Amino acid sequence: MIHLPASGIDMAWWPLLLIGFTVGVVGGYFGIGGAWLVTPALNIFGFPMIYAVGTDMTHIVGKSIVATFRHWKFGHVSAVIAFTMLLGTFSGVEIGAQVVYYLTQKGLAGTTIRIVYMCILAFLCFYMFYDYLRARRIEITTGKKVGDVVGTSVSRWLHEATATLPPILRCRNTGMVMSFWFIVFIALFTGFVAGFLGIGGGLVRVPAMVYLMGLPTKVAVGTDLFEVMFSGAYGCFTYSLKGGVELVAAVIMLLGAAVGAQFGTICTKYVHGIFIRLLFSITCAFAFVAVLLKQLARGYERVYEKGIEAVLLKAGYTKAQLTGLMLKQDVMQHYMVEVAKRPDWFEAWKMAAAYTKAGGVFVLTAASLLTGVILFQLVRGVIQERRAKLALEAQARATR
Amino acid sequence: MMEFFTWASNLSKTSPVAYGLINLLVMAVIGVALAAAADLFFKALKVDLGSYKKEYEEEAGTHH
Fold first, then answer.
1. Mean pLDDT calculated for residue range A54-60
2. From A75, A115, A250, A356, which residue has the greatest number of CB atoms within 10 Å?
């Protein structure tokens, strides 16, 4: 057990290490931060939720350094694109956050954001799966292996439309040249979506780099992790200002994530970009279900939220205590059924808790499955590489 | 070690900016240290994890 000084609670250390490892594998492989995985998973293990997002953001800083370093060595990172994208990303995030602020004032934020998020995830899931099937069809008709499909008609059109806009930048990894403004435009768009949805943005940025910018999948993954390093740092700092970070938990998660990120990142060497897209589409499907379960839980939370808040404040609790109290079944039963005489609130609370728990269990299962597939690919790749090396050595000995 | 975390946690109430900077610094230092340690580990095992020929380089970019 470890003591979490900010929240004052004690919890086991191994779930943090395990979640860190899993999100490290997945993040290193797909080039994403993995916040959609971490928050519900932490919830399952009783981690105080008001610290979940900030702690996740904090560990992402260290994890993305580890993963970016490995991708950099593989030649998957385009520093020119990553640095240029930062300009657009931060501006886009701020614009997205302003739109959310406007929607919050109108009382439309939560549901609208989740529905938009689900639509984007569903689109990405189907499109990337279709893209994978199309590549397989090309393989069958041409008889030639398709490792990655670089560029789309949209990306080519965007490149041509902005080709004369100086300054023109050169991406050394891929040999591609593109306008500075084109990169900023894509980053502004993805930053806006990330800011609007309140996510790190990797789930949107990687597909945007692949399909709109026309980057090879592995370069999109590596470059996005570079970007995540900075967006994570921004998130870590802002959440720290609000006191929403458990540093000791972030450090334990990072220890797990650093190992996991090595596995996830190294695996990208042994798989083709098109296979990463297939797994990415499955990841989007998992994220879709996680957001859907959250939305269902939210529907029930609305039934009792304002009422029970008023009851608890009247009972002498402070606003800061409410989040923790609302997680305790015995407290909720007492105040909803016995004090407020609203058994319907308690029924709604039980349903919300059930959906939240289901979301956590689902996310953990999904993350374990993805990790299993990635580790299997890694082991298979290493064995194949070793065999090929031994065969080459045997051949060299035979010809001598 | 726990004393440091308790001190840092108290800092969040007295000086949030310093707390934010310390969190960033701790993550950056541990991240760089672990990345370097992993690199040394793989070098010691003689595992080559340098740049390699990617599929898009071999195919010179397949467009559709």
1. 89
2. A250
